[in-house]
Design goal:
By secondary structure, this protein is mainly alpha-helical. It folds into 2 domains: 1-54, Homeodomain-like (Arc Repressor Mutant, subunit A, Orthogonal Bundle); 65-202, Orthogonal Bundle (Tetracycline Repressor, domain 2). The protein has 10 helices and no strands.
Amino acid sequence: MTPQSKKPVKSLDSRTQLIDVALRTILEKGIDAVRVDEIVEEVGVTKGSLYWHFEDRQGLIKAAIAEQIRRFSMETISAISVALNTSTSKEDYLAQILPFIIDPYDKKQVKERWGRLSILVETQNDPELKAMMHDVQSRHLELVVELMTDAQQKGFLRSDLDPRSVATALNVINIGSNIIDVLAENGPAPEEWWKLITFFIDAMFPTES
């Protein structure tokens, strides 16, 4: 190994390690930067091990992208589920979901969203990857649609709103909120941003009779 190579994480199986290294490479340098020789060297396995888990380089890339979306989905679904099951009021529900879903001032979230955006852009140039991205994004959307339907049943979403449209809007706001990172000091003050977003989400709640 070269001095720059990282030692493999022995607690993880080789497939997981290969996906993690490939995903990190994609997020930091782009899909074209994924090199089989470099990936297996960093993980500390042979090419034979890589091809045991994945049909080819494209298979590894697809698995890495799918894993990125899966991780994002699990975090989002978990946060909304907890809020739905533990909130005792509208205010409590809002307080739990807003910062997690669309916080443009959280550096970790901003970095993760840039990673998602870069992957979305890159996959549009490859028909196979584009189709795969469509599938994994669709699966994620379906999970959020189920949660929005549950929210309607529990009185946290107006009955006249389409759960699929609401789920899509939340995803659009989440990704699009990174424009605030671009605007920097010219963007809105945090308190004004949250005032507006709270207004939007609050409008989705049933009106009290």
